[in-house]
């Protein structure tokens, strides 16, 4: 069910003044809703056919029951049922019997979201299956605390809680209109009695400035008061020869049409052209009511001038209303006392069906909690001073989403400069704010990246193995070739990727880094290529992917070997055709992005195992660079240790002047399976524990019997796990960002993620501490 059609239906129902017209309009409008098969209304009325009722034996109260008063729907093509019929086995339902009777008795709604045929509430499951009925929603028509009846909807589509909520709102509005129609019918009956007694006061009628005519059922004019004679332009003697037909033109009565005054009915109000005896045309309003057996009274108002003025004003008003309603901004009017008097279509469609309420209550309901007090106080101060006001604030849409608006309020003054109203405008600035926030996020991300990789402000080392790598970087950087960087975890693959980017013609554009192992498999495509609004659950708005953010620059795909097969296909298309599509879109987007990939996995083995595409491998392996492990460049360890000591000592406010020789020997002899990242962590831990100017490493962290292929000793793992868990606890499970555990531990978030997985740490348990 959709909100807008329901609201439109509520407006249409509001124009009905007869109970039967109200219920017929409701069921026909509900049956026209997408997915709705059948809509029905039962009203609680006095028992009328108790002797012949099919439910007589089941009914405990023969004084009243639920009577079917309106039905509309479209059965399956093969069905011969007439769903508009008010007969059949459900034309009367005892209160408390079955689902409809239960709703009528208790006033509690019933919702079957799906699988209606399997619900205990459905009395005819075979009928539900044959008609494809999946869901049922029944709601009491309640007004002034009294249940008037039941509105029931049978749907061929599953119903959600939101659908049920809209039905509740509509049912409450429908109940009020039903009560109003009953009141109007009662009023019409009272007016009949008043008109009957009015004949006793003929003298007052004669003095009335309003034309009053008494008519026979055939339209013959029996009498007219002086105002009536004046209106018709005739004398009393002329009346005996006159009929109400004489006040119509021949065109109005073409094809045997009867005058409206001769149409059967009780009170009948209408407007029509009226022709005087001399042929002059007037516009009149006629109120027709029965006066005596076979006779009627017609009260006629000359509304010619009013009509002309209304037509002019209505034309201007319609044009102005169309302009205002089509405006893509919210426009509203407050009276001088700040009561709400008008809101344009854009405003009403944005906030949905909110009842009229004082502006302060309205602002409390729809304004973001962080903005509401500032907005209210600003408006109050501006109104007290009689000044204009504006402020940016977040306003809640009917679906619960907040958007940024520029809220403006301007006083409207009369010729004496006295404030008579306040005109308000809300301009949607969500896109501008998002752009600002995106810039802020990108700046923050840049600062985080700078902080995260600041340990690699320069590539430390003079070993031949490292220098050979740097020589290859220098050669490939100036080209636009795709690069595949391989090497063990912690060897600095991202550092090399950044070095390639900084030395390339793309250096002044973005460098976007993506850790393919840190993103859930079902979100990796959205993360890389973006998504459209509604592409999947939770996609509340369009989002740019990493490839769009890297446009004109470089994208670094770390651990590319972890990409799922479907994402490998999309990436292959980017490399081959230089274009991609957002998730949920069939529109292709050109991509001017250099791809630098990295992995610690054996991709040829992955190809043989069927987990990595061979064609993608050949596309990314244009220029391979293999980084040597730290154990192959022992001559660089002293330089790296000095670099890290300087970094972490400055950060901790300590001064370290000497390195213990035995510790340095241990560091150079250790095989470093975690490579530079592991060395960094060991140095940082040692600096934290260092209490003087002498740097040393705890001997227990290393094992003399350790071989290069064995993992870290248990003791070192335990200490490292303790450090990481402590940082996660302090940061409440957050890893990235300035306040994340990675920054606290002085390591890249991708490194910390890898260690968390390796040490089997459950990071989620720290998120609620």
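^ structure tokens above, recovered residues below v
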């Amino acid at each position: 069910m959709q909100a807008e059609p329901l609201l439109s239906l509520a407006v249409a129902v509001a124009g009905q003044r007869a109970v039967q017209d109200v219920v017929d309009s409701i069921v026909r409008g509900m049956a026209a809703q997408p997915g709705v098969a059948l809509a029905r209304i039962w009203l609680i009325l006095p028992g009328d056919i108790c002797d012949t009722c099919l439910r007589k034996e089941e009914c405990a109260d023969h004084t009243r029951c639920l009577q079917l008063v309106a039905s509309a729907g479209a059965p399956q093509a093969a069905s011969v049922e007439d769903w508009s019929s008010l007969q059949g086995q459900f034309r009367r339902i005892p209160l408390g019997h079955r689902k409809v009777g239960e709703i009528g008795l208790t006033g509690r709604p019933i919702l079957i979201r799906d699988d209606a045929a399997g619900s205990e509430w459905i009395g005819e499951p075979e009928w539900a299956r044959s008609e494809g009925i999946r869901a049922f929603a029944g709601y009491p028509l309640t007004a002034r605390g009294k249940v008037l009846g039941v509105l029931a909807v049978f749907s061929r589509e599953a119903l959600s809680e939101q659908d049920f909520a809209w039905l509740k709102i509509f049912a409450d509005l429908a109940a009020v209109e039903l009560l109003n129609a009953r009141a109007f019918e009662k009023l019409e009956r009272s007016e009949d009695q008043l008109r009957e007694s009015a004949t006793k006061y003929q003298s007052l009628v004669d003095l009335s400035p309003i034309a009053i005519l008494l008519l026979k059922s055939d339209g013959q004019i029996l009498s007219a008061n002086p105002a009536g004679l004046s209106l018709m332009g005739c004398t009393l003697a002329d009346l005996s020869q006159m009929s109400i037909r004489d006040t119509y033109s021949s065109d109005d009565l073409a094809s045997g049409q009867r005058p409206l005054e001769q149409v059967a009915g009780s009170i009948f109000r209408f407007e029509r052209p009226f022709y005087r005896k001399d042929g002059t045309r007037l516009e009149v309003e006629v109120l027709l009511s029965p006066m005596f057996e076979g006779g009627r009274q017609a009260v006629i108002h000359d509304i010619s001038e009013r009509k002309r003025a209304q037509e002019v004003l209505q034309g201007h008003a319609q044009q102005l209303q169309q302009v205002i309603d089509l405006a893509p901004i919210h426009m509203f009017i407050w009276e001088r006392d700040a009561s709400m008097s008008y809101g344009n279509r854009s405003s009403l469609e944005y906030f949905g069906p909110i009842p009229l309420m004082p502006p302060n209550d309205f602002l409390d309901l729809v304004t973001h909690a962080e903005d509401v007090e500032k907005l209210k106080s600003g408006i109050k101060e501006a109104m007290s001073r009689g000044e204009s006001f504006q402020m940016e604030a977040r306003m809640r849409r009917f679906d619960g989403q907040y958007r940024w608006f520029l809220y403006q309020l301007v006083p409207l003054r009369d010729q004496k400069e006295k404030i008579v109203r306040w005109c308000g405008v809300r301009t949607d600035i969500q896109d501008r704010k998002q752009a600002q926030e995106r810039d802020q996020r990108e700046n923050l991300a840049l600062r985080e990246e700078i902080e995260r990789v600041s340990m690699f402000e320069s590539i430390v080392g003079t070993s031949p193995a490292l220098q050979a790598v740097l020589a290859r970087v220098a050669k490939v950087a100036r080209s636009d070739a795709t690069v595949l960087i391989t090497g063990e975890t912690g060897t600095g693959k991202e550092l090399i990727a950044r070095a390639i980017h900084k030395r390339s013609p793309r250096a002044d554009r973005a460098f976007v880094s993506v850790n393919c192992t840190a993103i859930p498999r079902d979100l990796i495509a959205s993360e890389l290529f973006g998504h459209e609004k509604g592409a999947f659950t939770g996609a509340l708005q369009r989002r740019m992917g990493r490839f769009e953010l890297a446009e004109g620059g470089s994208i670094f795909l770390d651990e590319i070997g972890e990409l799922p097969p479907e994402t490998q296909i999309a990436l292959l298309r980017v490399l081959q055709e230089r274009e991609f599509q957002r998730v949920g879109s069939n529109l292709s987007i050109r991509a001017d992005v250099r791809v630098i990939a990295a992995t610690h996995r054996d991709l040829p083995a992955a190809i043989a195992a069927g987990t990595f595409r061979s064609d993608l491998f050949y596309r990314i392996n244009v220029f391979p660079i293999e980084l040597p492990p730290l154990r192959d460049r022992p001559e660089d360890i002293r330089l790296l240790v000095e670099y890290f000591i300087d970094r972490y000592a400055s950060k901790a406010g300590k001064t370290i002047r000497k390195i213990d020789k035995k510790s340095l020997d241990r560091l150079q002899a250790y095989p470093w399976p975690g490579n530079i990242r592991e060395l960094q962590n060991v140095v940082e831990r040692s600096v934290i524990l260092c209490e003087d100017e002498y740097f040393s490493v705890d001997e227990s962290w290393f094992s003399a019997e350790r071989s290069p292929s064995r993992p870290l000793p248990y003791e070192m793992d335990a200490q490292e796990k303790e450090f990481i868990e402590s940082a996660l606890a302090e940061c409440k499970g957050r890893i990235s960002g300035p306040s994340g555990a990675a920054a606290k531990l002085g390591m890249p978030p991708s490194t910390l993620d890898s260690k968390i997985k390796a040490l089997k740490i459950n990071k989620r348990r720290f998120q609620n501490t």
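The mean pLDDT is 83.
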